[in-house]
Amino acid sequence: MTFMAFVSAVLAILIAPGPTNTLMSLAGAQSGLGRVIRLLPAEVSGYLTTSVPLVFMGAELIERYPAGAALLKIVAAVWVMFLALKLWGRGDTAVASSEVTARRVYVTTMLNPKALIFGLVLLPAPIDPQFVPRLGLFILMVVGVALLWGTAGALTQIGSSGGGRVRTVQRIASVWLAVVAMTLLAGAVSA
C-alpha cells in the first residue's frame, strides 16, 4: 500500500464517528481540551492493545476461529450499549459524575471495530520495513484525530453558562453510542 493510500485510509476510518470519537468529544465538552490531552494515552494504548497483536497473528486466528470475530463484535456492542445507557442515565445529574475516564476510553478503543481494521488490513506485517514508520504515523494520526474530536466537543461550550449544553451533548452521545452498538450487534449476528 502506498504512503498516501495508507494515510488516506487510516484518516478516513479514524475521523468517522464512532464510540471512541464520541467519548473524546464528550470529554472536550465536559472539561475542555486539557482533559482530552490527558486521555490521549488511553486511546493510543487501546488501539495498540488490539491492533499490534492482530498484525502479528490476527489473520491466522480469524481464519482458524471465525466465530471469534463475531464474539468480539458482540462484546464490543455490549460495552458500547453499556456506555450509552450510562450516559443517558446521567443526563440529569451533575456533569462531574459522568466524567469520561481513561478506563472507559481505553476499553472502548480496545473493543472498537476500527482497531480490527487497522490490525488486520492497514498496518503492514512486522517483517515489512515500513512497519515501524507506519505504526508511528498511525499513532500520530490517532492523536491528531482525537484532538480534533475533543476540540469539536469543547467548542460546543463556547458562550455556555451551566451544564445545559453538556447534558445535551451527553444525550446526543448516548443516542449515537446506542446506534453504534446496535450496528455492531447486527453485524455480528449476520456474520
Q: How far do the termini sit from each other? A: 27 Å
Rough outline: globular
Share of β-strand residues: under 5%
So how many helices? 8
The SSE string, one letter per element, is HHHHHHHH
- Roughly what is the average pLDDT, rounded to an integer? 84
Structural category is mainly alpha
Number of folding domains?
1
* Overall number of strands: 0
Rounded Rg: 17 Å
The poorly predicted ranges are 91-97
Please name the defining characteristics of this protein.
single chain, 191 residues, globular, mainly alpha
Secondary structure: elements and pairs:
Layout: H1 3-15, H2 19-31, H3 33-64, H4 66-89, H5 102-110, H6 113-122, H7 131-155, H8 164-190
Helix pairs in contact: 1-7, 2-3, 2-5, 2-7, 2-8, 3-4, 3-5, 3-6, 3-7, 4-8
Written description of the protein model:
The chain has helices at 3-15, 19-31, 33-64, 66-89, 102-110, 113-122, 131-155, 164-190. It has 191 residues and is mainly alpha-helical. The protein has one domain (17-190). The longest helix is centred in the N-terminal third of the chain and has 32 residues, at 33-64. It is globular. The two termini are 27 Å apart.
